[in-house]
Amino acid sequence: MTSIGRLIPLFLALLLAVAGAGAATAAHIKAVLEAETLRPAAGSRITLALSMTPERDWHGYWLNPGDAGAPADIAWTLPRGVTVGPLRYPVPQRLIVQGLMNYVYERPYALLMTLNVPKGLAPGTPLRIAGKARWLACSPTICVPEQGPVAIDLTVGDGAVTAASRARFDTWRAKLPMPLGQAASFEAKAGKLRLAIPFPKGRPVTAPYFYPATDGVADYAAPQMISRRGDRLIVEIKAARNPQPVQAIEGLIAIGPDRGLTVTARPGPVPAAGVPIAGAGDEAGADGWRTFLLALGGALFGGVLLNAMPCVFPILSLKALSLARSGETDRHARVEALAYTGGIVLSCVALGLLLLGLRAGGAAAGWGFQLQDPRMVFVLLLLVTAISLNLAGLFELRAVGIGEAMTKGRGALPAFWTGVLAALVATPCSGPFMAGAVGAALLLPPAAALAVFAGLGLGLALPFLLVGFVPALRRLLPKPGAWMDRLRRILSVPMFLTALGLAWVLGQQAGVDRLVQGIGAALLLGLALWWVGARQAQGKRHSWIPVAPVLAAALALLLVTPSGGSPAAAAATGAEGAEPFSEARLAALQAQKKPVFLYFTADWCLTCKVNEKAAIERPAVREAFERAGVVVMVGDWTNGDPAIGRFLEAQGRSGVPLYLFYDRDGRQETLPQLLTPATLTALAA
């Protein structure tokens, strides 16, 4: 640390510490050592966390504290053979005090590290992990060096991690910067430091800021100018007063709230500045508005195209039937269109609110999260089964109250519930333009993000809305008649196929036992609805009563259905010979300069499954990859794997499918969301 200004508060803090050495004082930042598992397996690596909780108006410091401050460190006392890696810091915030720039944490944070357990230890062997931690705690007026013992007792075991511990550590991991993977370049001349950082031109970035980890190269308090030129972020900073000659500059580029990329820059050419990007505090800047408008436009257009995606096709049966019934009068058509649009838009906004809430709580959730829970799939299986049987004419829904409002009848309520169902089933898959739009929305402020989700719903509803308000389009529809009953029965076929697909997803997520229970519940529901239809034909009152015990039994099954998935089922997902996704394995393959085709899928994403059957799993593609030595890697996001969620977010995506190809030289190419065998064989060539 070379900044003289940094020594001033440290000197004052030392005086205060000496003056108060005789009095015991409570720490202003509470430090607690935690482990992801208390029973690590022999030969394994586990994550430790130094959990730091500052008092109000106090803060701790990043790896490079800036103009003033000091980072934390731990002097370890470890069992023989046990080692602990370096501290890993989350993305910091900036704090200027009397003209000095500080890189700090003003909210609770955690410093993560990796503990290596030696091989050959017998189960039950105790491991006491202890150390003396030191950190600097500061308020706007005073700094206090603090220290204290930290320790945790572990026992060699099976390495099991509880769900609560996994969620807590995933929350901390989500705030760690991701490795950029490509070298940046820098040049220093005329009192200015300029860096060119590789960054995909199509990926959104919000309030970027470069935090130098290498000391003595930049004026920390000087404003930064960051612009975008093609697939590079150009960072311009005032150089330090007496810059130190260095062969590499390390640092972190923040790209959004608690999101960042680690950067290593080496001497090299830096292009001229490009389009300026709004910085922190410049929320109304042109680039912020541009990002929002591009995300909104992408969501709107993506929603329109989503109507043609394979994962949306089954719901088109309900749309077609409602469209055919909506054209009797102009007023009736407009009411149907607006109600249907309202159902979709409100559902998309509600899903967006829930998604933002889950992510704010630390969950690595993405678009389509509602079908990552087997319980939701179970409910949808029964609902779609009931709708299929109704379309087939087995019974009429008017005796079941809400069912009538979902798919049949005239007026606003039926159209509204049809829109709700359309949004619930249609949104899990990402279509063209939609993935980037939703990824950008997750980096925008909450109000702007919800506007993007509403734009997605509007795009999905737009075809129906146009038919409702454009008489010329309605005149293209055939007039209501007896053909509607035939169409209704024909349209039951894709709904039955949807039910079959949901049953398969349930089996993939929760195993064969839950699959049998789901099919059994659907069968019992079908028998009960057949009884309902018979009672309706006889004109009996309360004809829906046979459904009550089936729904009670279904509720009991729902309560015992696990929220997580089946690891065995997840492991079986993927093309023949494909390796399961792992960031460590991907990095190893890139280090070996091997080409990699990496794709992310989920059992509830029909677009993913179509691409797999039509392109990825074709013999010609498999043979071409084998000849070229292309390693195929698959990430199964069916059950919402947090590691995959974090990786998708780092790619600017919030859902699947995502297809990436890494060349031998490390270059990454993002492939289109609709694949053909020719597209993949061309990569191998």
TrEMBL record:
<dbReference type="InterPro" id="IPR035671">
    <property type="entry name" value="DsbD_gamma"/>
</dbReference>
<dbReference type="GO" id="GO:0005886">
    <property type="term" value="C:plasma membrane"/>
</dbReference>
<dbReference type="InterPro" id="IPR013766">
    <property type="entry name" value="Thioredoxin_domain"/>
</dbReference>
<dbReference type="Pfam" id="PF13899">
    <property type="entry name" value="Thioredoxin_7"/>
</dbReference>
<keyword id="KW-1133">Transmembrane helix</keyword>
<feature type="domain" description="Thioredoxin">
    <location>
        <begin position="560"/>
        <end position="685"/>
    </location>
</feature>
<feature type="transmembrane region" description="Helical">
    <location>
        <begin position="376"/>
        <end position="395"/>
    </location>
</feature>
<feature type="transmembrane region" description="Helical">
    <location>
        <begin position="490"/>
        <end position="509"/>
    </location>
</feature>
<keyword id="KW-0472">Membrane</keyword>
<keyword id="KW-0732">Signal</keyword>
<dbReference type="GO" id="GO:0017004">
    <property type="term" value="P:cytochrome complex assembly"/>
</dbReference>
<keyword id="KW-1003">Cell membrane</keyword>
<keyword id="KW-0201">Cytochrome c-type biogenesis</keyword>
<dbReference type="Pfam" id="PF11412">
    <property type="entry name" value="DsbD_N"/>
</dbReference>
<dbReference type="InterPro" id="IPR003834">
    <property type="entry name" value="Cyt_c_assmbl_TM_dom"/>
</dbReference>
<feature type="transmembrane region" description="Helical">
    <location>
        <begin position="337"/>
        <end position="356"/>
    </location>
</feature>
<dbReference type="Pfam" id="PF02683">
    <property type="entry name" value="DsbD_TM"/>
</dbReference>
<feature type="transmembrane region" description="Helical">
    <location>
        <begin position="544"/>
        <end position="561"/>
    </location>
</feature>
<keyword id="KW-0812">Transmembrane</keyword>
<feature type="transmembrane region" description="Helical">
    <location>
        <begin position="416"/>
        <end position="442"/>
    </location>
</feature>
<feature type="transmembrane region" description="Helical">
    <location>
        <begin position="448"/>
        <end position="470"/>
    </location>
</feature>
<dbReference type="InterPro" id="IPR036249">
    <property type="entry name" value="Thioredoxin-like_sf"/>
</dbReference>
<feature type="signal peptide">
    <location>
        <begin position="1"/>
        <end position="26"/>
    </location>
</feature>
<dbReference type="GO" id="GO:0045454">
    <property type="term" value="P:cell redox homeostasis"/>
</dbReference>
<feature type="transmembrane region" description="Helical">
    <location>
        <begin position="292"/>
        <end position="316"/>
    </location>
</feature>
<dbReference type="InterPro" id="IPR028250">
    <property type="entry name" value="DsbDN"/>
</dbReference>
<protein>
    <submittedName>
        <fullName>Thiol:disulfide interchange protein</fullName>
    </submittedName>
</protein>
<dbReference type="GO" id="GO:0015035">
    <property type="term" value="F:protein-disulfide reductase activity"/>
</dbReference>
<feature type="transmembrane region" description="Helical">
    <location>
        <begin position="515"/>
        <end position="532"/>
    </location>
</feature>
